[in-house]
Design goal:
Helix content: 40-55%
Strand content: 15-25%
CATH architecture of the largest domain: Alpha-Beta Complex
Strand order of the largest sheet: 1-2-3-5-4
Number of domains: 2
CATH class of the largest domain: Alpha Beta
Largest sheet: 5 strands, antiparallel
Structural class: alpha+beta
Number of strands: 11
Shape: globular
Number of helices: 10
Order of helices and strands: HEEEHEEHEEHHHEEEEHHHH
């Protein structure tokens, strides 16, 4: 839901922080920077049912790992959330190294199960503007098939962005997931929507992670998301990660497998080239090509 009423944004900032806002700066969609009377800034977000609760719980769960910087939640209610402002800066090799080490630590903090929602987070959550279910399952292949790939394939077929033939290709990946998934790993604590736009290279130095869709998952998923749309100094991020927590053999071969979910989300939300990209990615997975 897009909020264009500046007075509502300013009112939310004042109500949830106790400090009057004097000016809003749109940051896209339902997100605004609000300049406060004292000269400081906060971020004010409005979301659909459950979105604010899910994101606030995600941010707190990531912060509880004490390894990765995230914006502090300053206040929230059913529809609005106020976050600390992060002053953006430029990528650096030092920040890339720090991001890799921080992600390794975050993933190692773990989760009770694959698909587990953060404490206080709803089962019915969101990734961007797409609905997402955080329902636990006993293994990653089973969970990835049932709660990530299958629902979005079905939605895209219903919407007409995927054909029945396209769905057959994607379902072929589901059938072979136990052999394609690689060695079994314990559930990791994931950011869950870690594309380059959700990494803020801060002026203070370290990279700050924003807009999480956190849950228990496979650690290779966050890294595959970083690669999907490109990330500055990605090889440095990966090298620093590997120094702390080496990835299982064959992980590069599995990057495309983990990218299928975000591609299907984009196919549902935006259509365009994404359905064809999802099908092409599924074919690469099935033929063993990266």
């Amino acid at each position: 839901m897009t909020v264009t009423d500046d007075s509502a944004v300013l009112a939310a900032a004042g109500r949830l922080t106790g400090h009057a806002g004097v000016r809003t700066v749109p940051l896209g969609g339902a997100v605004h920077r609000v300049v406060l009377a004292d000269g400081g800034s906060v971020v004010v977000k409005h979301g659909p049912d459950g979105a604010v609760t899910a994101e606030a719980a995600s941010l707190r769960w990531l912060a509880d790992a004490h390894v990765v910087p995230v914006p502090t939640v300053l206040g929230e209610d059913a529809d609005w959330m106020v976050l600390a402002w992060v002053e953006p800066g430029a990528p650096s090799t030092r920040a890339a190294d720090g991001l890799g080490r921080a992600l390794a630590g975050l993933h190692a903090a773990g989760a009770p199960a694959f698909g587990q929602a953060p404490p206080g987070g709803p089962v019915d959550a969101w990734i961007g503007m797409a609905a997402m279910v955080n329902e636990p399952a006993p293994s990653w292949p089973e969970w990835y098939a049932e709660y990530r790939l299958a629902p979005y394939i079905e939605r895209c077929v219903r919407a007409g962005s995927l054909t029945v033939g396209d769905a057959v290709v994607l379902e072929g990946v589901i059938e072979r997931l136990p052999e394609l998934a690689g060695p079994a790993e314990p559930p990791a604590r994931l950011h869950g929507d870690l594309w380059r736009g959700n990494v803020v290279w801060s002026a203070a130095g370290p990279a700050v992670l924003v807009d999480p869709a956190a849950h228990g998952g496979h650690r290779e998923t966050d890294l595959a998301m970083l690669a999907l749309f490109g990330c500055p100094d990605l090889e440095r991020v990966l090298a620093a990660y590997q120094e702390v927590a080496p990835l299982a053999e064959g992980w590069r071969r599995r990057v495309t497998l983990h990218q299928l979910f975000p591609l299907l989300v984009h196919a549902e939300l935006f259509g365009g080239v994404y359905p064809a990209q999802a099908v092409a990615a599924a074919r690469r997975v099935l033929t063993g090509h990266r």
